[in-house]
Amino acid sequence: xxxxxxxxxxxxxxxxxxxxxxxxxxxxxxxxxxxxxxxxxxxxxxxxxxxxxxxxxxxxxxxxxxxxxxxxxxxxxxxxxxxxxxxxxxxxxxxxxxxxxxxxxxxxxxxxxxxxxxxxxxxxxxxxxxxxxxxxxxxxxxxxxxxxxxxxxxxxxxxxxxxxxxxxxxxxxxxxxxxxxxxxxxxxxxxxxxxxxxxxxxxxxxxxxxxxxxxxxxxxxxxxxxxxxxxxxxxxxxxxxxxxxxxxxxxxxxxxxxxxxxxxxxxxxxxxxxxxxxxxxxxxxxxxxxxxxxxxxxxxxxxxxxxxxxxxxxxxxxxxxxxxxxxxxxxxxxxxxxxxxxxxxxxxxxxxxxxxxxxxxxxxxxxxxxxxxxxxxxxxxxxxxxxxxxxxxxxxxxxxxxxxxxxxxxxxxxxxxxxxxxxxxxxxxxxxxxxxxxxxxxxxxxxxxx
Length: 450
What we know:
Layout lengths: L1 H4 L5 H12 L2 H13 L3 H29 L3 H7 L4 H43 L3 H7 L4 H19 L2 H28 L5 H9 L9 H14 L6 H6 L8 H32 L14 H14 L2 H38 L3 H21 L1 H31 L2 H9 L9 H27 L1
């Protein structure tokens, strides 16, 4: 069954694809600003601990279920369910998961389109096309719809080629480009006046805030969401992993790559914010708090680039190229979730499924743009604040409580025969049964009641 569905051809390909799914816009702009707003290095320290104590176990739940079933989330949760009731609940969870993944992609495609527009605006400015650059950076329905469609066409094009020729091939190309681009930007920004102040905020901890409930819950949320957990993207990628692979090791590598890029992004964004402050660009709001993430990306950083002359245009071009790549590596995993379900449950060809689902999601994106003030924030809250934590909770419940322990152990033995003697098996089963669900519910409660 796995061979007819497609399978990652190499460990490197899987790690790049899974890390690409996890590394998105949130890692590059969300994590650094959360760190800056929550005690800098204190937040960083707590985040690193929680990423391996929460995000990794939850990631493993999805990967193991996916690899065992070699199927989409609906089929996978149905397969591991022992009774009629748990099968129905599992199928409902899988269906809600691909709907949520589609809704996330509907607003993600809009934001990613803005990134492409700003990238092209920098290119236009380098070529002296100031009128085009102005149009590309002006919020308006024609621009927003056009570049949302451009981004969706890119995503559809990659997914339509399948697992090896599409997802794996392009992730293996795009992720190294993303990493090199990020490193080059970090190296340059750290040479600018004011960057040291940003580094101090990022690296010097305020230890009084380490035990702050607000900081801990914020770090928990950042760790959970940074790995794209809760909507089945990692489950579907796990379903394309060979039975020969050591899943705990693979999951650890994905977690390490994702966290490393998020932390590295902090060395870019926080110093850049304080370089902007040094150049007279305001980064704090009237109450003294750091400005919001979207204002940072589309107002503060472009204002910083404007103060840097021609070098600023080149840096802007490089930065928005980086953001576009990060968006694309995440979007392909989101689209694969409903596509895999449609192919396997309804017998539709991959290209047909991709085009139809891509068009439907683009239609939802257009609807959001036509009613931007009412729908954009609503869809983000519905999917990321409410649905994603609850879906992550359900995946942990199925891995920890519903799936028979012996069957789960047998799955892990396929690529790791001595798993019972390792630290992973001594800790993970209890962790995914008790600790992860409790922590995920804490994140959910915090998102509702603050």
